[in-house]
Design the sequence.
């Protein structure tokens, strides 16, 4: 079965060989998708079994949200309200969500996850990574990953999110559990492994042990780092060849140089900085150094309860000094790089036919009209 998206006023392909500039922009275009794969990109008027007439609208690749924590129960609105009144964020609320999530049934967690994914899809996300990290024991972490794997292939085991109450004062014992029985139970349901390298969570040696154990089990590596202050996270991620190091709010010159000289993607989570009242990272500095940059939502109940990648784009433009084109590229092709995917984040022959039709003439409206639901239609995407 073939589908043509036709009469596109402005098409973002993310391939400079197909159009103008780094976004590969094509005007008056059409995209033919056959059996879920882009067959051709060309001028308007192509023919296929089905046709979507965009009436001159902008079309771009579906957003690639490479960092979420969607499998959870409970609510932390009170924590957010208190934080907006001046209480600093310290990550301690993770344990509150852990208790609520452990108490939820499989059906409840599936329903909640499905609703969040539907919300993300309506906002234009067609590829979504989902982490565990609110179970923090062997059975719960495996349960949450099984649920996540019912929705996406991009699942991440994050038992090293924070030390649970049961291991208070014994972080090394908990790391042994994560690297042993917990990893064995979770690896069959995960593509990636992640850890939170931060004061109050896990130090560099503990994170190294977790990631090296994950690599030995066949998982790809990711890392939370440099969120609350400067620290060893970025350097560790680059040393170990992580696909991505996420947050990157506080970077030294050495961190920026390390990112620029590596294949590790710097994934910024600006909605988190908005929600925690932290300073925004200097994305301009990182891009100018030559590093690869991604944007992601970090959807979670405590520090970033949003599924809107358009919101993240607007924040990146307003407060991280990215151009609109750079922010859109980071939310699509950058996210794909963070997941080491070359089939998403672009609309080129052979790529996945994941496309977003905007109710706007150009992608600039994603930042120009912040908070407005501009996604008219979404084609393709993750399992539902």
Sequence:
């Amino acid at each position: 079965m073939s589908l043509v998206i036709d009469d596109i006023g402005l098409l973002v392909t993310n391939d400079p060989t197909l159009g103008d500039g780094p976004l590969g922009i094509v005007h008056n275009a059409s995209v033919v998708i056959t059996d879920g794969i882009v067959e051709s990109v060309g001028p308007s008027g192509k023919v296929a079994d089905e046709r979507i007439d965009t009436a001159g609208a902008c079309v771009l690749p579906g957003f690639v949200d490479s960092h979420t924590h969607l499998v959870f129960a409970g609510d932390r609105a009170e924590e957010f309200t208190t934080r907006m009144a001046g209480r600093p964020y310290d990550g301690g609320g993770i344990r509150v969500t852990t208790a609520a999530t452990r108490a939820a049934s499989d059906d409840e967690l599936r329903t909640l996850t499905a609703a969040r994914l539907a919300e993300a899809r309506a906002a234009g996300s067609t590829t979504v990574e989902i982490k565990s990290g609110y179970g923090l024991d062997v059975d719960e972490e495996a349960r949450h990953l099984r649920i996540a794997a019912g929705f996406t292939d991009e699942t991440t085991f994050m038992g090293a999110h924070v030390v649970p109450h049961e291991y208070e004062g014994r972080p090394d014992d908990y790391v042994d559990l994560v690297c042993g029985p917990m990893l064995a139970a979770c690896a069959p349901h995960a593509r990636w492994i992640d850890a939170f390298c931060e004061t109050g969570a896990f130090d560099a040696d503990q994170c190294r042990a977790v990631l090296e154990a994950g690599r030995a089990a066949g998982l790809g590596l990711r890392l939370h780092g440099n969120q609350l202050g400067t620290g060893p996270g970025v350097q560790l991620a680059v040393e170990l060849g992580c696909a991505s190091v996420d947050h990157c709010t506080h970077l030294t010159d050495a961190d920026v140089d390390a990112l620029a000289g590596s294949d590790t993607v710097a994934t910024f989570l600006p909605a988190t900085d908005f929600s925690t009242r932290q300073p925004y990272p200097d994305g301009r500095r990182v891009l100018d150094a030559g590093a690869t940059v991604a944007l992601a939502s970090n959807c979670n109940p405590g520090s970033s309860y949003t599924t809107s990648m358009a919101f993240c784009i607007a924040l990146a433009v307003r407060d991280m000094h990215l151009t609109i084109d750079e922010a859109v590229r980071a939310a699509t092709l950058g996210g794909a790089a963070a997941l080491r995917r070359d089939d998403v984040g672009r609309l080129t022959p052979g790529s996945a036919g994941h496309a977003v039709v905007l109710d706007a003439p150009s992608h600039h409206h994603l930042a120009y009209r912040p908070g407005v639901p501009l996604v008219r239609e979404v084609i393709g995407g993750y399992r539902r």
Summary: The chain is about 35% helix and 20% strand. The first strand starts at residue 2 and ends at 12. The radius of gyration is 20 Å. Residues 106-122 form the longest helix (17 residues).
